[in-house]
Amino acid sequence: MNTVVERELELNLVLSPERSIPVPARLTYRTGDPYAVHVTFHIKSESPVYWTFARELLVEGNFRPCGHGDVRIWPTKVDSRSVICMALSSPDGDALLEAPAVAVSAWLERTLRMVPPGTESERLGIDEGLAELLTPTPADDLWLRDPWPSDESQDGEG
Fold first, then answer.
1. Residue 67 forms beta bridges with which residues?
2. CA–CA dist 23, 140 (Å, integer)
3. 35 near 21, Cβ under 8 Å?
4. Residue 26 in 3-state DSSP?
5. What is each CA distance from 47 to 39, 40, 43, 148, in whole angstroms?
6. Which alpha helices (H) appear in the chain, and where do they start and end?
7. Most buried one in 19, 58, 72, 113, CB count within 10 A?
8. pTM of the entire structure?
9. Of 61, 65, 62, 39, which Cα lies nearest the Cα of 52?
10. How far out from the chain centre does Cα 82 lie?
């Protein structure tokens, strides 16, 4: 069963130290994709902007700076409010977003109750899938025995 945990919230897109604009966003977690979180940004364009990254990165980013390259996350305070900063980089550009820490933490807690850390692989069914693939079937028995006698003759036969 695939369960979805979603949260609508407003992020701030930081344009400069003095200026930011609100960006509606949706956080999504699917138990069928247990290692990832999905963020949908509803900006003023024809279609939303989607980002997917490791749930573990967002969890760690609630406590300390983490990430390299395309996604970096860290906690901080802005005007005495606790926020989670997300720096996102792509070939199309860079963005610095601030998310309310309380809302993100509450949403993350729900995902962690659904799929506790360290149990993600159980949700993928990899072991069951491999067992099914590797279980011999009656048809496999045909391939294991030689259906045609060998063309090689035994010693003394001529």
1. none
2. 57
3. no
4. strand
5. 14, 10, 8, 61
6. 55-61, 101-114, 120-124, 126-134, 138-144
7. 58
8. 0.75
9. 39
10. 24
pLDDT of 40-93, one tens digit each?
Answer: 998 777 889 999 999 999 999 999 999 998 999 999 998 899 999 999 999 988
User: Taking Cα atoms as reference points, which of 23, 25, 21 lies closest to residue 38?
Assistant: 25
Distance, in Å, from the CA atom of 145 to the CA atom of 119, rounded to the nearest integer, reads: 41
Strand partners for 36? 54
Give the DSSP per-residue string, 30-75: ETTSTTEEEEEE--SSSS-EEEEEEHHHHHHHTTS-B--TTEEEEE
Q: Among 75, 72, 92, which residue's Cα sits nearest to residue 84?
A: 75
For tokens 């300390």, name the residue.
Answer: 64
Contact between 41 and 51 under an 8 Å Cβ cutoff? The reply is yes
Separation between Cα atoms, residue 87 and residue 53, nearest integer Å: 12
For 15, the enclosing helix (H) or strand (E) is strand 4-16
